[in-house]
Amino acid sequence: MLARIVAEAPEFFSYYNIVFLLEAMLATFALSAVGCVIGFAAGFFLAVSRRTISVLLLPLRALTAAFIEMFRRIPFLVTLMMVFFVFQVLGLDISMFSVALISVCLIATAFIAEIIRAGLESVHRTQWDTAAAMNMNLIQTLRYVIMPQAWKIILPPVFSFFILFIKDTALASQIGVVELTYAGKVLNNKGFSAALVFGSILILYFILSYPLAKFGARLEQKLAAARNS
Amino acid sequence: MSYTLQFGQVTGYLPYLAGGAWISLQIAFLAFCGGMVIGLFGAMAKTFGGRALNHLVGGYVTFFMNTPQLVQIYFIYFALPDAGILLTSYEAVLIGMTLNAGAYLTEIQRAGFESVHRNEMEAAETLGMTLMQRVRYVVLPHIARVLFPPLSNQYILMTLGTSMAAIFGVEELTGRAFNVNAETFRSIEVFSLTAGLYIVVTLAATLLLGLFGRFMFRAKMRLY
Prior knowledge:
The complex is a heterodimer of chains A (229) and B (224). Chain A has a single domain (2-228), classed as MetI-like (MetI-like fold). Chain A is built from 9 helices and no strands. Chain A is mostly helical. In chain A, helix 2 (15-49) packs antiparallel against helix 7 (138-168) and helix 3 (58-71) crosses helix 5. Chain B is built from 9 helices and no strands. Chain B starts with 7 loop residues before the first helix and ends in a 7-residue tail after the last helix. The A-B interface holds A 1, 4, 69-70, 73-79, 81-82, 85-86, 88-91, 167-168, 170-171, 173-174, 180-181, 184, 188, 193-195, 198-199, 201-202, 205-206, 209-210, 213 and B 1, 3, 62-63, 65-72, 74-75, 78-83, 156, 160-164, 166-167, 174, 177, 187-188, 191-192, 194-195, 198-199, 202-203.
């Protein structure tokens, strides 16, 4: 195995292949990052809509709860396939990258909504009651009372979810999105040995994920310290 | 859009798909058990082991937590034959998932080990307990209650993770969904049925694990 890797290495690390792998790495990162940013916005909306109390908004609350429970219990691969086939049936001509992005957004929305809900609930009830007593509406309560306290609790798990999703987007290679895992499959099909190709892919994922994980751990420590003081 | 949903053709395959869900649960269970054993020894090594052992386990955990499970299984399935190790797809998926679960479960159990008070460990040492006895009689009863909720959460996530076995041709729930899709071409119906089965299976698992945790360890757990 080793002899073959050494023999193939000079040809494998050619200029074209390195550019190809770096572009694929960028696609992996973009898929996860854009998905999580959109997921955060939508998840925030869902989490807040679960805090409403009006009777008229009951259907909204029920739908939100159903959406969150559903997408947290469907594997990413199945979501990907469903989105893929729905767009095929609708006859819309969108790229595979967009299909994967929409799937990531759906899953990220559900998971991040749950994280934000936990963050909102971590703020003591008396704070909500006080804001209500001061005649603040929901938006004002969130803006001036809840979010200044809750974001320290929300941010670390959201960030670790983002890192988790860098790895989960590997499944998007199954529908033909050109990201890191797909690049590995292409190079393997070109005849490079699997050990060399997938070994490099594993290392590239590690390079992408490890600094972010370190940063996330530091973020968590800093925010935890800020919370206790 | 002129597409009418037709579940008639697909519902006939429901027992076939349910059988696939059973295989999914099996894979998740086997990988979880293997991962628990790796995790237990990993956590012991990180808490009581020396410097070298600590670095070794730390490297294993860091590597497996920062690379995708799918590519790990690709490596095991496609690259190891070069070194003369031939595995069936089922074995490769199981080994990959076990190693991956081992890393995550090491981290979870290490946190539990650290939550045991120093005094308790020193008292046990004074009584002349060996390392295994200390883990068995002091640490494990103590951390079971604390760790049961995160562990059952990890189990649910692993059940969802088994869907990637389909990519290697293992006929579990998602793999069988691909088969039914190829036979009927009713893609949306097949995959929504599959998604429904995953929801049912994980809801049942959450409920059972929650009840078990509440009765056995008096852990505070959500039942839904």
